[in-house]
Each structure stands twice: as C-alpha cells, then as structure tokens.
C-alpha cells in the first residue's frame, strides 16, 4: 500500500517565533457578512488588537481568533447574532454584574450588531483572558 507524500509544514523565520497567518480566510469571513454585522465584528477585532497587541490572528474552528502563546479569544456571527468567544467560563464568572444584560453561555457573549460590546467591556475581558493564560503558563512551567 502506497503512502501519500507528506506536505511539509510552513516554517517560521526564527526559531520559536509564531508564523504570521495568511489572513485571507479572515478577510473572506468578514466580507461574507452583512454590512452591520461586518462593522460590529471589525470594531470588536480592532478592540481586541488594541488590548492584546502581541496576539496573532488566526482562523480557527471556522471563526477568526487570536492567539498569544495559547488560544485567547475569537469572534463570529450567526444569522441571529454576533458572538465574542472568550474560551473561558471562569472569565465570564468574574463579571456577573457587567454581563447580566447580555446573552451569555459557557465562554460566549452574544450581542446584536446594532448594539456592539462597549470598548471598556472588551478591554476588561481581553485583559482577564491574558491574565488567565499567563497564570496557566506559570503553573505548567
């Protein structure tokens, strides 16, 4: 039985550096959204970048996401809403009074494009995720 030749993985330019992803999938994802949804998601994207400037953008599990050593946050939309994926129920539990007016589930905040998340809230949540990831990294080594 013949084996298929393996495709080599893309190499980084420096040992230990993170490869800059091809953002064509992210651009295509955003372009496929209606104008109000795209505007809300691009606003959220800008706010995430501002609060996690060292994070790299990736396209993961079918949505745009950010990584900083490990998964940080992601965002996306469905036919009914936009979503901010914190990938952490623990972070959501830190802000019950702030998030009580939002539709939340384990690690996700859903919002309407005409009512985007406030910049101050995004900042708090991204900073909390960065701290959580840093604490995990410290624990593991």
Which terms summarize this structure?
Aspartate Aminotransferase, domain 1; 6 strands; globular; disordered N terminus; 40% helix; 6-stranded antiparallel sheet; 5 helices; 141 residues; alpha+beta
Explain the overall architecture:
The protein is α+β, with helices and mostly antiparallel strands and 141 residues long. The chain has a single domain (24-140), classed as Aspartate Aminotransferase, domain 1 (Alpha-Beta Complex). It has 5 helices and 6 strands. The chain has a 6-stranded antiparallel β-sheet with strand order 1-2-3-4-6-5. Strand 5 (103-105) and strand 6 form a beta hairpin. Helix 2 packs across helix 5. It is globular. It starts with 23 loop residues before the first helix and ends with a helix.
CATH fold call: Aspartate Aminotransferase, domain 1
Low-confidence blocks of residues: 3-17
Sheet with the most strands, sense and barrel status: 6 strands, antiparallel
Order of helices and strands: HHEEEEHHEEH
Number of alpha- plus pi-helical segments: 5
CATH architecture: Alpha-Beta Complex
**Mean pLDDT across residues:** 86
Rg over C-alpha atoms, rounded to the nearest angstrom: 17 Å
What structural class do you assign from the helix and strand content?
A: alpha+beta
Q: Which range does the strand content fall in?
A: 15-25%
How far apart, in Å, are the first and last alpha carbons?
43 Å
Number of domains: 1
| Strand numbers in spatial order across the main sheet | 1-2-3-4-6-5
Count all strands and give the number: 6
Characterize the overall form.
Answer: globular
Helical percent range? 25-40%
CATH class: Alpha Beta
């Amino acid at each position: 039985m013949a084996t298929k030749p393996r495709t080599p993985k893309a190499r980084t330019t420096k040992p230990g550096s993170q490869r800059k992803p091809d953002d064509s999938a992210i651009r295509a994802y955003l372009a496929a959204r209606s104008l109000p949804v795209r505007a809300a998601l691009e606003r959220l994207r800008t706010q995430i970048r501002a609060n996690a400037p060292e994070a790299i953008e990736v396209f993961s599990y079918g949505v745009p996401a950010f990584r900083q050593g490990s998964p940080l946050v992601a965002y996306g939309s469905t036919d009914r809403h936009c979503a901010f994926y914190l990938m952490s129920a623990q972070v959501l539990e830190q802000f019950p009074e702030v998030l009580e007016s939002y539709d939340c589930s384990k690690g996700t905040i859903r919002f309407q494009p005409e009512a985007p998340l406030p910049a101050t809230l995004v900042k708090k949540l991204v900073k909390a995720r960065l701290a959580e990831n840093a604490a995990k990294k410290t624990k593991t080594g």
